[in-house]
Amino acid sequence: MRQIYLLFLAVVVVEAQPLAQQPRIREAIDAVSEERIGATIQKLASFPTRNTMSSEGVAAARQWIFDELKSYSSRLEVSLEHFKVKKSEDRIFRDVDLYNVVAVLPGTSMRDTQVLITGHYDSLNLIPMPGESTEERADNLADRPVKYDYTKADVRAPGANDDASGTAAVMELARVLSRYEFPKTLVFIAFAGEEQGLVGSTLHAAQAHKQGHTIEAVFNNDIIGGELAGNGRVSNGSVNVYSDDIVDSVSQAVARYARRFGELYLPAMKVNTVYVQDRLGRGGDHTPFQWEGYAAVRFSTPNEFFAHEHSDTDLPNFVSVPYTARVARINAAAAATLAMAPRAPVVTAEAKTGALKGRQVPQLSRGKSRYDAQLKWKYPGSETNLRGYAVVMRSTTATDWEQEIFVGNVNEYVFKDVSVDDVRFGVKAVDNNGNESLISAYVFPPRPKREVPVY
Ligand SMILES: [Zn+2]
After folding, report:
1. What predicted TM-score, i.e. pTM, was given to this entire model?
2. Ligand 1 centroid to residue 350 C-alpha, Å
3. What CA–CA distances, in Å, run from 387 to 3, 111, 265, 407, 431?
């Protein structure tokens, strides 16, 4: 990279400003209360169960979450999002009314653009069928799948780590961030039906897509309270952020954003960008948003205690409140920064010719000389406080951007003698306050298969 770096030094036209903490975001992060997060986890775990299929427990829990959210601020628009879910399989053994609890903090100038902070408030205690082993409590982990009696939905299911921890983070961030106004809309959601197969999030994401909602990022929190794994491994200085397995996907861009701004405000925490969709054989509420084309990530502890999961021993005393609060603060840093930032530049346009004709392709070419890198982009809004754009680049084998060059308030740029075949490019918008958008990467779709007629 040294050679390319020197080349770039010659073409820098405007000095990039160093990354700085925003006082308002610093203040919000510092206002995140361990005490409140601890009390919320205790309260949620005290309901006999929060199983979506339970006869009563879940209704009491959601009503408590709803009332709490309402009490935080008159700015929060709190509602119950109701779906009637049909009986369909073992886990949904009867028709059921499902309610997500949603709190919206409307944006000021980019109201149509949403940033979501989510978790699931439902819980589960899996009761094995008679004759089945009770040792392997977490489903999908055993070599031999254990058969469970899902109709036992009223047994005690405290769900402290899974996922009172994530719900407590969502609620605390709703409380703290609703003291402020943001240009974009922040949406805080406690989903139901996660344990029945991501049901609440699937229905919400599909409806958002159908209604044409712009969701820039989903920060999902699920099992964010554990410091101790079942094998004795201990750590509380890092959090895993799962995105997906597609290089330079929009979800990976959100994961990198969470690391950049999470570690800016909490340098003691390491944000592990894990470029896989989720933990082995497991699922989470970020995935249904990816199905609908949205960018979504999952925060989760690297240290899981499988024996407690989906059992009556998922209790608050196995949850670290300080650790949960640190993960909540990482969320606050990333989501609040993004809610203040410009929109991400659009780097694609419809291909007029070639094998990808008619498809959206990145506006990256070799320029007139055929030996340069010419990048074009557009800003998808009418914001007037843009300082300009920064182009980022890296080797195709690197996992994060290695170079960043601020190029000014322009919509195209030519990097002399940089071969487009050697590197990956991206671009982000930066406003006058130094707020940065998500990075849009220049990624070509794979070449379509060709059918060759023979006779
Ligand atoms: Zn969970």
Report:
1. 0.94
2. 40
3. 29, 21, 23, 10, 5
pLDDT at 42 over 60: yes
Least confident of 1-15, 88-102, 160-174, 201-215: 1-15
Measured in angstroms, how far is the CA atom of residue 162 from the centroid of ligand 1?
5
Contacts of 388 (CB under 8 A, 6+ apart): 14, 406, 407, 408, 409, 410, 429, 430
Q: How far is the CA of 263 from the centre of ligand 1 (A)?
A: 25
pLDDT of residue 121: 98
Residue 380 corresponds to which tokens in the numbers above?
Answer: 């998808």
Q: Tell me which H or E stretch contains 118.
A: strand 110-120
Which residues, chain by chain, have CB under 5 Å from ion ligand 1?
A: 162-163, 222
Helices (H) and strands (E) in the chain, counts: 9, 17
Distance (angstroms) between ligand 1 centre and the Cα of 314 equals 11
Q: What spacing in Å lies between the alpha carbon of 176 and ligand 1's midpoint? A: 24
Statement: residue 10 has pLDDT above 50: no
* Main-chain dihedrals φ then ψ at residue 183, nearest 5 degrees: -60, -40
**Ligand 1 midpoint to CA 286 (Å):** 11
CA 435 to chain CA mean position, Å: 19
Ligand 1 centroid to residue 437 C-alpha, Å: 29
Of the pLDDT bands very low, low, confident and very high (cuts 50, 70, 90), residue 137 is low
CA 191–ligand 1 middle distance (angstroms): 10
- Strand 412-415 and strand 184-191: the pairing is unpaired
Average pLDDT over residues 276-292: 95
